[in-house]
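Hello K.,

You asked for the raw outputs rather than the summary table, so here they are, unedited. I folded two proteins back to back in the same session to keep the settings identical. This is the first:
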Amino acid sequence: MAVFTQMTKAQRTGLLFVILILFIDMLLYSLLIPIVPYFSETLKPSSTMMGILFSSYAVAMLLATPIFGPISDRLGRRAVLLVGLIGLAASTLLFAFSDTMALLITARFVQGIAAAATWPTALALLADLFPPKMRGAVMGTALTAISTGTLLGAPIGGWLFEISDHRMPFLAAAAFTVINIVLVFLFLKEEAARTASEKLAVGGFLRNPQVVFIAGIVLLAEVSLCLLEPTLPVFLTQKFSITPTAIGLLFAAMTLAYGLIAPVAGSLSNRFNPYKLMFAGIVLLAVFMPSLVWAGSLWQAGIAMALVGAGVGFTLSPTLPTLGSIIDQGGSGAYGTAYALFNMFHGIGMVAGPLAGGILTDLLPVSSAILVVAAAVLGFGIMLFLQLKASGAVRVSSSKGEMHSS
């Protein structure tokens, strides 16, 4: 894309480091998945303890994100990124040498705190480096790095586990993270000194109709995605009698489609009304979700998974540059605080999705629960868009991709 040929050396370096940081973050997040059976067999945890293990990441991220976003606005992106990467390395080493569930949960909690430092700060760094007309494409690329890390974490972890032992995936990931720390320390240049103007009135920001709409869209997309992770494998296994490897490939198709569509949707948000793109993504997601239930064969299920992943990617990608543009409207450079709020919406979805899925599948068959969720996503998406239109808070020039207050 033309936008990448227009980058300065500083912009290319910053984007490269953001890609590496977000990639390693999500690689570490999914690295645990293939090693769970080993811990289940050796430590004999209850289902409740396993639930706490997986939810502790999102809980820690929710608690720590409001702290790190504003800190990066005041102290600078480089320092907070280094703190987050050091936390990721420490949590990964703790995973490698954990021999109790308490230590595993602690490691996952520390990992969530580290992600609270890296995610919003990395996105804020992109907003610092790139003008609004370039942010859509680069933010979409950042989302692709996230999906790639998620996609590769489980198979890499499983392969390293098989050729060695349960510690090897974590030790290898820790080594990769340490290399990343050294590179950031040596080559990522600190931006100009922070200014007093880089503050955000969080209360007013959250009352902004545009931000309310984005928050609602992020929650709908994340809840839908995270709801499928614990419920869909059981449904597909029962329907098609498939192996865990096949389940993994189906989810890989969803993640791959997400990663491929994200930069496309990000680029489109520079040319068209991003709010209409987000709404279109939610409508597509709601339309595609029932195909998961109606798929009559394995290849149809794979196509359905890819369509759902593409729907989520198309929905979420325009939210990132649009949040940056809202900050620009206010004349503030407090991108760290803004993307910390995005991270919080993301974390709430990670917690609420599996919880909603568990409640619904206790009351309904999985197929019915997915149809109910699709209808709810469509209904709430329409309601959010109508509220945004009624507020008259924004209009977008599609020729320039610039937002203006009415």
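The second followed immediately with the same parameters:
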Amino acid sequence: MTERGTGSAASDSAPSDKRPGRGRRWRRRLAIALAVVLLATAALYVGNSSTLAGRPPGGPFLLAHRGLAQTFDLAGVTNDTCTAERIHPPEHPYLENTLASMRAAFAAGADLVEFDVQVTRDGRLAVFHDATLQCRTDGTGTVGEHTLAELRGLDLGYGYTSDGGRTFPFRGKGVGLLPTVEEVLAEFPDRELLIHLKVERAAEGEALADLLATLPQQRRDTLTVYGGDVAVGAFAARLPDVRVTSKKIMKDCMVAYLAVGWTGHVPDACRHRQLHLPQRYGRLMWGWPNRFVSRMREADTRVIVVNGSGEFSEGFDDADDVDAIPAGWTGGVWTNRIDVVAPLLGR
């Protein structure tokens, strides 16, 4: 009984003798794990912090959407809204997508002007935004249902009103103002242009590619094309040297970059592109804002920040909007009021 009791006491005390050692080893392992996590977190922060990188030289470049155009109230806008019927009281005489509006935009300080393209019934590349003609003009139907000559006869300012239809300040002033892509290229031979394929068909992209293929490489380097996935895909298949973007291209880039961008690496999906990023999505990117822009620039990709959610071409159009641009931003800024924003940014 004594031996049995002594053995039992010895066995009861043995585990308690070992527990302090196991506890110390567990605490050391936990401390090492926490140190590794802290070091990794610090490395991620240092490697992706724009604050620590300092303010890069230069300032933002400005993209004038549709040239210098009439703006409108975005409240309640849908894809079917006729925006010409809800413009703000006019503060300048220009109509979107005309040569005059593009000249005014460049004169006001734009680095890059965006315009919209559709193919006419006779195969010409006309500069016009809407899916149908009846909102903005005195015509009906689509661009694709008319010849270029017929479109030239329309009054591009016919439907604009800021007071519910009591007055039409641009009626009669837009006849003959609709340009072609060839005319825009000839008017601005050395300026940066963003060309928007408005119709989501492969034929639209192929037609634009056929035209731009006739230009020297140096000129094509100043052009960017964007639009729907199908149209842009068809364009890029024929003319891969021109910078392009679409929703799919931007999504593929962002997903790939979120996976590996913490290392500073820019994946192939993000190379030789243009990204139109609302700030709400940009903030998710490793190195946002300025390290991200610098990394993309090294990959021959331009980043243009868009206001709001990115729907309906929201731009940075007034002083409050400009205050929301990231500090030290050297990427692009999308605006519908280049005449207002350029002076605010020191142009």
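The longest helix spans residues 2-48.

Happy to rerun anything if the numbers look odd on your end.

Regards,
P.
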